[in-house]
Write a structure and sequence with these properties.
about 350 residues; Gyrase A, domain 2; Elongation Factor Tu (Ef-tu), domain 3; 3 domains; six-stranded mixed beta sheet; six-stranded antiparallel β-barrel; about 20% helix; globular
């Protein structure tokens, strides 16, 4: 298994380690519920060093990003970040990703760990006709995510960057614990916070310093378990569950990342047709009304017939109920629709509710 450069830090803290898409990663430390609530009420620190980083450089860098992404990267100036997708020519997801504009001729793509090699090979296959150079330096990057309402308070003493004035979805180069880093005000929890990237070969001090500074303020290290429950409450998609090469951004309720007016991009024609009346289903959020916890892949029934399956589902530590995401036929993909979920031998009632389930109040 691959190991991030923070692996020893996790083991010193007694993390329970598991194999995750080929990586040795912490799933929990004190427990998923405690970690989840710590992130919601104070702060959490995540090792996301398994994520993939892809460089696009050259005079056609912007044009190439515009070609592979449905969002409009021309709106980005250096230091800005954008959430978007990497699409097939069918308008479906190869992956979702962040695009960082670091320079007019230098874009950083951050992709999912399970897809890094696949994504890079796909991107390389699209470069004909574009004056760009591509690189996959993922193994050289380390990445941490500090999330929660006390993130600024914890990180500011450790960096020379003025964090309070940093806007959401912006990034800047600076030093953290005297190590050169790229810090962005982004995350995957629904909370305020930062993602910290470094090419330093020995970044363990970053983890230890943030833990030391944050623990008196309620910070906890967070494993993959609570990372999943946090992102689900915020209705942030997980590749392989909520989005994949069979789903489009329009079906996944991410129409806002599809900028039809920007010009051509991979899959645009298919998405235009779908947007003009070809949308048959949509991803919705639901809560389980009866007893039971909806888990991924459990069957979903409408009018007695199976219409799909649970994409993501869990017990919410914050709301103390079972929440999830599922694709429903468009006519039924509205708040208030009731349907059933097969849980073992039973069918339990669920109801479509507004999303995101959680939205921060600060």
């Amino acid at each position: 298994m691959k190991r991030t450069r923070f692996n020893a830090n996790h083991r010193r803290l007694g993390a329970r380690m598991i194999e995750f898409v080929g990586w040795d990663m912490p799933v929990e430390y004190k427990g998923i519920i405690d970690e989840h609530l710590a992130c919601r009420t104070a702060a959490g620190l995540f090792d996301v060093g398994h994520m993939g980083e892809i460089h696009i450089t050259g005079k056609d860098a912007l044009a190439f990003v515009q070609h592979i992404s449905p969002n409009d990267a021309s709106r980005l100036s250096p230091g800005m970040v954008q959430y978007t997708a990497l699409l097939t020519d069918r308008g479906t997801y190869v992956d979702d990703m962040l695009v960082y504009c670091l320079h007019p001729e230098f874009y950083l793509l951050v992709v999912n760990a399970s897809n890094t090699d696949k994504d890079y090979a796909y991107i390389v296959g699209q470069k004909d006709g574009f004056a760009v150079a591509l690189d996959n330096p993922s193994d050289r990057y380390s990445q941490l995510a500090l999330q929660g309402r006390r993130a600024v308070e914890i990180l500011q003493p450790l960096t020379d960057l003025p964090l309070a004035g940093m806007k959401s979805f912006t990034a800047a180069f600076g030093k953290v614990c005297e190590k050169e880093c790229l810090v962005s005000r982004t995350g995957y929890t629904g909370e305020d916070g930062f993602e910290i990237y470094t090419l330093d070969p020995d970044p363990g001090i970053l983890w230890d310093a943030i833990i030391e500074k944050g623990t008196p303020l309620g910070l906890q290290p967070i494993g993959l378990g609570a990372r999943d429950t946090l992102r689900l409450e915020a209705k942030l998609p997980l590749y392989g569950n909520d989005i994949d090469e069979t789903t489009t951004p329009l079906e996944a309720d991410f129409k806002w990342i599809v900028k039809f007016k920007k010009g051509d991009f991979l899959g645009r024609d298919v998405l235009v047709r779908q947007n003009e009346g070809g949308l048959a289903r949509k991803l919705v959020g639901f809560e389980v009304v009866d007893k039971g916890i909806a888990r991924p892949h459990y069957p979903v029934f409408l009018g007695g017939s199976q219409v799909g399956h649970v994409a993501s589902g869990t017990f919410s530590p914050l709301f103390k109920k079972s929440l999830g995401l599922a694709y429903l036929p468009l006519a039924q993909a509205v708040v208030g629709t009731e349907f059933e979920i097969g849980i073992r031998t039973n069918r339990v009632k669920a109801r479509v509710v507004p999303t995101p389930f959680y939205k921060r109040d600060y």
